[in-house]
Amino acid sequence: MDRAEETRAPGVRLVQAAFHCRSLSLYTNLGFDIREPLSCLQGRTRTRSFSGIEVRPASASDLSACNALSRQVHGFDRAVELEQDVEQGNASVVVRDGRVTGYTSDLGFFGHSTTETNLDMQALIASAESFAGPGILVPSRNSLLLRWCLANGLRVIQPMTLMSLGLYNEPAGAWMPSILF
What we know:
- By secondary structure, this protein is an alpha+beta fold.
- The protein has helices at 2-6, 21-29, 63-74, 79-88, 118-126, 143-151; strands spanning 11-17, 33-42, 53-57, 92-96, 99-104, 113-115, 136-139, 155-166, 174-176.
- It is globular and about 50 Å long.
């Protein structure tokens, strides 16, 4: 919080373990607002692909489409982070009807994902052989996506809470946050 104040960051976000009552109380007392209940999911889906939707490794030529999608859904882009994830080979894109309709920096605890629709997000999740770290963070209020995940064999590992202090843009699309952001 001191660093955010020093750099005049417009906001701070964190993901809190929902079962940890003391940390929830602490962050709330520090001024953080609860933005989204999250379900940390792990496993491998039974559905492995969707007709007409391709999930492939992201390339540098996909960056502008990914950043445009991030601006559309979140109100800002993730250019620096995405460029690093593409260079490291962690990022993937969803292609439907010949255009990028979603991306992930990495499917797992430390990666974020943004798509136009739940179907695009389902294709992205289904493409993974496994998830990095404890799992993916699915917004629990996205009931359609959460039900699809559960019906396809994923299991809830732990409940979590996305909290923020300061600026927060309500996402307008399907998304999964990172533990880092």
